[in-house]
Specification:
The complex is a heterodimer of chains A (about 110) and B (about 230). Chain A is of the alpha/beta class and about 110 residues long. Chain A has a single domain, classed as 3-Layer(aba) Sandwich (Rossmann fold), CATH 3.40.50.10330. In chain A, about 30% of the residues lie in helices and about 20% in strands. A 4-stranded parallel β-sheet of chain A has the order 2-1-3-4, sandwiched between helices. Chain A is globular, with a radius of gyration of 13 Å. With about 230 residues, chain B is of the alpha+beta class. Chain B has a single domain, classed as Tumour Suppressor Smad4 (Sandwich). Helices cover about 20% and strands about 35% of the residues of chain B. Chain B has 6 helices and 15 strands. In chain B, about 40% of the residues are buried. The chains are: A alpha/beta (about 110), B alpha+beta (about 230). Chains A and B meet through α1, α3, β4 and α4 of A and α1, β8 and β15 of B.
Chain lengths: ~110, ~230
């Protein structure tokens, strides 16, 4: 796939042990010259509503950065969109369990 | 981040979970719909694991993976380690156990992927894009006490799924699985047991009567390395 538009990173700063991954994510994306927008979440279900309501045509990819709850809400928010549009989803593990990332062999940031 | 940079996309299944509703058409509209429908990526839990997960949630921030062990002990102290009874139907066929029409168990978990909380692998056969939902329940009566469960969960964390060959669990799979709560062991089945705990991908939900799991093949695209996944 080609990133012809920015990627959208939905980031839960409260997941897991609250490690701040933003500097790592930003450095890597800047090094790779990938444009991005960061959407930090505040409370439960923010992540769901971001993925459901955002202007999906502005982005090439959705990235869920957090724990299993964050991935679960991003997937469910996207699948609940009235326009039925979807984007591929990238996962950045920062939770206490990270079951989904473990299943997909995504072990580190 | 490597997978995001490498841009390799793979389609995977989701499992549509309907709570106390037979189909999407009968769901309420608006945000209330959220209480009755989810897409599951990894696993769901009923009976003991749902109670443990519910108990562990407030402890996760301070205790991490140890929160599940502490929560299991708390549930044991509250005498919540008891068999719940379920009517289970897989692709329209009823699951029976030892001639009984219902499944009596302390642990019942539908899976899409194989991982469970705290690094455990209870069902090593679940694959995320095989078009099927997997269901695992503990079926060895002799191990349905606290120590039996603790031993099996310890092995699930340490042995990466190999413990399944001890035959304490039964695994079934299908495109559609319906699970109806039917009361608890040594309590006469009757209507009105109140709301039961239901975990879906770590989220804490409730159901009253039944839950339906339907596989939706190739529903979302994830960025990961499929070669590593399938080799594993």
């Amino acid at each position: 796939m080609v990133y012809d538009k920015p990627i959208c990173i939905i980031y839960n700063p409260n997941s897991g042990k609250k490690t701040n991954l933003v500097p790592q994510i930003e450095k890597r994306l800047k090094d790779e010259k990938i444009e991005y927008e960061l959407l930090p979440t505040g409370k439960r279900l923010d992540t769901f509503f971001f993925a459901r309501d955002l202007d999906i045509e502005k982005y090439s990819l959705l990235v869920a950065a957090g724990g299993d709850g964050t991935y679960h809400e991003v997937v469910n928010g996207m699948l609940a969109r009235p326009d039925k549009q979807k984007l591929p989803i990238g996962l950045v593990p920062n939770g206490s369990g990270n079951d989904l990332c473990s299943s997909l062999d995504i072990k580190t940031v | 981040m490597d997978y995001i940079v490498n841009r390799e996309v793979t389609l995977v299944d989701t499992v549509r979970v309907l709570i106390d509703h037979e189909d999407e058409e009968s769901l309420p509209t608006g945000d209330d719909r959220l209480n009755f429908m989810r897409h599951m990526m990894i696993n769901s839990a009923m009976s003991m694991p749902a109670k443990v997960a519910n108990e562990a949630i407030p402890m996760k921030k301070c205790c991490g993976k140890a929160s599940y062990t502490i929560a299991t002990l708390k549930e044991a102290i509250k005498c919540n380690v008891r068999q719940d009874l379920f009517n289970v139907t897989v692709d329209g066929k009823k699951v029976t156990r030892e001639g009984k029409d219902d499944v009596g168990t302390v642990l019942l978990m539908p899976f899409n992927g194989k991982n469970t909380g705290a690094g455990m692998i209870i069902n090593p056969f679940a694959v995320m894009n095989d078009g099927l939902v997997d269901l695992t329940f503990m079926s060895d009566e002799r191990r349905m006490g606290l120590f039996g469960i603790a031993d099996l969960l310890d092995k699930a964390a340490k042995k990466g799924g190999i413990q399944t060959y001890e035959n304490a669990f039964t695994h079934v799979r299908g495109k559609s699985i319906r699970i109806e709560f039917y009361g608890s062991h040594k309590r006469k089945p009757k209507k009105g047991f109140g709301q039961q705990l239901l975990g879906i991908d770590g989220e804490d939900l409730r159901f009253s009567n039944f839950v339906k799991y339907d596989c939706v093949p190739a529903n979302v695209e994830f960025l990961f390395n499929p070669n590593t996944y399938y080799n594993d």
